[in-house]
Amino acid sequence: MSNARSQPVDAIKAAATRPEPRFQIKDYMLLLKPRVMSLVVFTAIVGMVLAPASIGPLTGLAAILCIAMGAGASGAINMWYDRDIDCDMARTMNRPVPAGRIHPKAALAYGVTLAVGSVSAMASLVNILSAGLLALTIVYYVFLYTMWLKRRTPQNIVIGGAAGALPPLIGWASASGDVGLGAICMFAIIFLWTPPHSWALALFRRGDYANAGVPMMPVVAGEQSTRTQMLVYTLILVPVTLSPVLVGMSGAFYGAVAAILGGLFLRHAYKVWRDPDPAVARSMFLFSILYLFLIFGAMLADRAVGAILTDNALGGLL
User: Fold this and answer.
1) Got the DSSP string for 250-286?
2) Strand, coil or helix: what is 71?
3) Which pLDDT value is given to residue 24?
4) 258 CB neighbour count, 10 Å cutoff
């Protein structure tokens, strides 16, 4: 076992001593984890739009770019730090750093530069609160999740999930300069969505995490316990997705869509609980990504529907 573990480490050391490969824009883009970034940016935009204050187009664009840069910075530093275990996982072994296409020091410098630049720009172009929340997100993801929790506890995703739930608060604060109840509702939705989403991935990639020594829930607590916890989190998540209606941020349209999507997500969680086939977990993982996009998309659509109805009502009165 020690020989098997030493080979990836030796490969990383060898990659660090050879000259950095030719600059490739694609690889530096991959360092930013663009798929994760897209979800981060989208939920932040929803928070910005639903905030009870308007934001100028240039300021809004600056905020979105800063949030994207901050998310990318977190991804780049994460890939720098995790380059040893990424070598042991089929899902990650072809990332730019473990594959030797980008030097580890270059990845770290890239991430730190983006982190400092994004927070500084947010502070000067938007407001201090949104810059502070962006800095908190980066620090939380890099130091608390990546460097501490991920390799030490099966609760890594639960506690570390707060980092991924902060973007709507950043978007909200960018527009309003504060953090309202609606933003907290969006935070809670993402926070509770993260465990079933991430553990679904861990179930059908269990071998990867076991090989890398990452204590994901299926590796430490067993697969059936993980499936049960996924179902419990989903049962809590579904009613929480209706909280935007209860606080008056969203209306009936969103409530109906959230209820339907919640029923579908519960169906996936129940199937995973009943069926140990990894393909079932993979199906839930893929749906969970679409689910979160649709939940936040429904919030935007509900706001648009409400605006149209209001305009029609005013037109009728006039």
Assistant:
1) S-HHHHHHHHHHHHHHHHHHHHHHH---HHHHHHHHH
2) helix
3) 86
4) 25
Whose tokens are 């620090």? That residue is: 139
Q: What is the DSSP string of 137-161?
A: HHHIIIIIIIIIITTT-TTHHHHHH
At a CB cut-off of 8 Å and minimum separation 6, what does 159 contact? 144, 145, 149, 153
d(CA 240, CA 82): 33
- 102, two tokens: 């980008």
Mean pLDDT, rounded, for 88-97: 93
pLDDT band at 305 (very low <50, low <70, confident <90, very high): confident
Are the C-beta atoms of 186 and 47 separated by less than 8 Å?
yes
Tell me how far CA of residue 64 lies from CA of 9, 13, 166, in angstroms: 37, 37, 14
Mean pLDDT of the region 117-140: 98
Query: In this structure, what DSSP letter does residue 314 have?
Result: H
Residue 229 CB partners (closer than 8 Å, separation 6+): 195, 199, 217, 221
For residue 163, what are its two tokens? 């980092």
> SS3 for 167-198, per residue?
HHHHHHHHHHCCCCHHHHHHHHHHHHHHHHHH
Query: CB-based burial of residue 305 (10 Å sphere; 0-12 exposed, 13-18 middle, 19+ buried)?
Result: middle
Contact indicator for 111, 149 with CB cutoff of 8 Å? no
Q: Which of these, 248, 244, 249, lies nearest to 51 by C-alpha position?
A: 249
Q: What is the pLDDT of residue 22?
A: 57
* Per-residue pLDDT tens digits for 22-67: 568 899 999 999 999 999 999 999 999 999 998 999 999 999 999 9
CA–CA distance, 262 with 44 (Å, rounded to integer): 21
CA gap 53, 46 in Å, rounded = 13
What was the pLDDT predicted at 142?
97
Structure tokens at 17: 């001593």
